[in-house]
Amino acid sequence: MFVDTKDMFKKAYEGGYAIGAFNVNNMEIVQGIMQACNEKRSPVILQISKGAREYANPLYLTRLIEAAMEEFPDIPVAMHLDHGPDFELCKAAIDGGYTSVMIDASHDPYEENIRKTKEVVDYAHAKGVVVEAELGQLIGEQFDEGEGGKMGEGIYTDPKQAVEFVERTGCDSLAVAIGTSHGAYKFTKGEPKLDFERLEEITKALAGYPLVLHGASSVIPEFVEMCNQYGGHLPNAKGVPEEMISRAAKMGVCKVNIDSDIRLAMTGVIRKAFAEKPENFDPRKYLGPAREAVRQMVIHKLEILGNVNHI
Ligand code: G3H
Ligand code: 13P
Ligand code: ZN
């Protein structure tokens, strides 16, 4: 069934677990995720980025998700816009039936972030759609961790500002920056570390309010190695250790975003299939195993998030 994220987040918050928000770009990904959620009895957020809409045509993704819901009618599914860059795209998603949107104005100055977020919130709430916003900026492709970069207080979410931001915008959930980053190369300058003290401060300041963790893939070594073994080149890929994700899920983080792990699992398995059966030219023979890898990976993630048997 199609739902917004309110009820999911309330139950997750109270139960000390998090909902997986998985990026979807094609049929095999949607199917792999939904099969896993059906097996583990887990509500889920299927999220669609601007890039996914451009790749697949938004209509196809919506129809795929509708088909999945018809196959698994009792799984609560939120259809979410990931990293909406502006009002126009958020509006298009809301008008297109998404139950949740993210407006990401985190790169803008604070007041502009508030203005843009509030504009989307006003439109979304009038249509019964919930809004995720972001305060603070993730490192990685957004900022360089090294000397001269903006690593430090400036990009991590300020707890006091977070309270004011939520009050002034009315956003329904907030993505926070505590040390994660997008992609397969996290913590390039040292050991993995998240600012749990800051997370605790934010959670205390915004008691009962759902937080979101972007850039939360753990970059599972098995799949990095599989990619590399079969002709890939992903040197020193590194993610967020899974125990840190489990810990955050018990600290007010209700939504955990995972995309890179799906990409790595599919790519590893497809590379292996190509290498082992060079004579094959039937796409089902490599997309099928890729879908199965997504299913298994999502099952593993749901366990890490504590999101099992919650339907
Ligand atoms: O955070 C970004 C997500 O991983 C989506 O990536 O914009 O390449 O679809 P994308
Ligand atoms: P990863 O790149 O760590 O999977 O993060 C995905 C994400 O935050 C999507 O919004
Ligand atoms: Zn993200």
Polypeptide structure, described:
This protein is an alpha/beta fold. It has a single domain, classed as TIM Barrel (Alpha-Beta Barrel), CATH 3.20.20. It contains 12 helices and 8 strands. Strand 1, helix 2 (27-40) and strand 2 form a beta-alpha-beta unit. The protein is globular and about 60 Å long. Glyceraldehyde-3-phosphate binds at residues 23, 49, 51-52, 82-83, 182, 259. The site of glyceraldehyde-3-phosphate has 8 residues, from helix 3 and strand 3.
Summarize the structure.
The protein is α/β, with parallel strands linked by helices and 311 residues long. The protein has helices spanning 6-15, 27-40, 50-56, 58-71, 87-95, 110-126, 159-169, 196-205, 221-229, 242-249, 260-276, 284-305, and strands spanning 19-23, 44-49, 77-84, 100-103, 130-135, 173-176, 211-213, 253-258.
Radius of gyration of CA atoms, rounded to a whole number: 19 Å
Quick one: biggest sheet? 8 strands, parallel, barrel
Amino-to-carboxy terminus distance: 11 Å
Mean pLDDT: 95
| Poorly predicted sequence stretches spanning 5 or more consecutive residues | 141-154
Task: Note the beta-strand portion.
Answer: 5-15%
Q: Give the spatial strand order of the biggest sheet.
A: 1-2-3-4-5-6-7-8
Count of alpha and pi helical runs: 12
Shape: globular
- CATH topology, which one? TIM Barrel
Element pattern in H and E? HEHEHHEHEHEHEHEHHEHH
Q: Return the CATH class.
A: Alpha Beta
Give the second-level CATH assignment, the architecture.
Alpha-Beta Barrel
How many structural domains does the protein architecture include? 1
Helical amount: 40-55%
Number of strands: 8
**CATH superfamily, please?**
Aldolase class I
